[in-house]
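YM 10:42: FecR domain-containing protein sequence, as discussed on the call
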Amino acid sequence: MDEKIIKYCQGNLSKEEQDQLLKEAYKDPVLKSRIIDYQHLHSLLELTPERMDKEQGRINYACFRKLVNAQKRKVMLISFSRYAAIIVIAFVSAWMLASYYFSGNLAEQKELIAFQQELLVPAGQRAELTLPDGTKVWLNAGSKLSYPSFFEKERKVFLSGEGFFNVAKNEKVPFIVSTGTIDVKALGTQFNVFCYPGSDYTGVYLQQGSVKAYFPSSESEGIILSPEQYLVQKGKRLELSTMDPDELLWRQGIYTFKRQKLGSIIKKLELYYDVKIIVKDPEILNYEYVGKFRQRDGVLEILRLIQRIHKFNIKKDDELNQIVLSK
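YM 10:58: structure's back
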């Protein structure tokens, strides 16, 4: 059974084998709990924040198999190699979706269980993962992605923060990213979605293919994007705008700002690093900057680099988790 759970986590079971395993888990709480635990651990090990971590990822997965063989039930936090740029905490919750064929014979009823997973990326970090359908996702700092352990009738995920999606093609089952305000539908394409709760807008940038952005209540009134188009949603309006493709370098751990005012930069730094930045002298907000900064340098180092161009004072209060800028 443990070997079957491993194959389920890897997506190597046939549809019939998946249904049989989940049917057994529906009737066996102990088995269901074990699947949840292993799904949780597998999600952690699937995260590959840096390309150089792949070998370490294989080592960690070998550890996963050992844990299964030893039948250890507790979810463990995996320490990645010294090159890892992130530790992502995945909280796994589960619910049951029962779909029955109309029949009086219980043996012919098909019971399905979907395990919903929620991945949180800490401030100042980023993550990369592959969804059950083969779609690759990059998550920026402070982002959260909720997705099922397998897709059935639809491929729908829920994003809070920023994510880049390289969608696996499946013309019969569209891929949908729900942001809480708008949905983005694609068949097979590459696009970026910016939708932090602390921001006053949602942005969708299409790199390749085609996507449709729309309010869930009025899909027919949505906007279909062409490559290199950028859509911004504010309130009840959807408008096409412009975005520098270099802003997508966050996937490599680089934040790019081109002729952006400090006020705009500060808003993003607050979202990326989960810190409050207070500006005591408003004129500082109008300074414009051009530059590229490494995510791993941290918010203070980024501000110090900016400080070299236009002088201002920086004061960090660790207890209040805030930074004060003044002249």
